Amino acid sequence: MFILLTQRILEAHANVKNLSLVAAKMNYIKAWQLLPEYGITLFVVKFMNSRKEELLGVAYNRIMKMDINSGDHQKTWRFNTMKAWNVNWENKHMMVQFEEENIVFSCLSADCKVVHEFIGGTYSCQLVQKMQVKH
């Protein structure tokens, strides 16, 4: 086991030892951006009719329901199927309407205003990008 680990470290070092500092940093950033969870912002939420806390992941093109312990994706909703989102300010519940279903949850790790604005900002950025591609 130790020999295998040492061998892998030496191979990795051989791949970067001749790079400049800036090139090595750029390679690191590119590798980081290729990770499956890159660009996903996580919030702890409790979905309506559920007793357990779960993760809500917001990415540039989708919202995901994730297991809080493992990070496994349980359900994904695409922004291109989203119709509306709003907050009931009295009970701090957020509702997001999609073509196929509506989801309602309370925000536990941040004020629901933060999640509301985050989803709105992310969705707006996606719409702007679509408009720029068309023109």
TrEMBL record:
It comes from Rhamnusium bicolor. PANTHER family: FERMITIN 2-RELATED (PTHR16160). SUPFAM superfamilies: PH domain-like. Residues 1-135 form the FERM domain. One of its GO terms (molecular function) is integrin binding. InterPro entries: FERM_central (IPR019748), FERM_domain (IPR000299), Kindlin/fermitin (IPR037843), PH-like_dom_sf (IPR011993). One of its GO terms (biological process) is cell-matrix adhesion. PROSITE patterns: FERM_3. One of its GO terms (cellular component) is cell-substrate junction. It comes from the Eukaryota. This is FERM domain-containing protein.
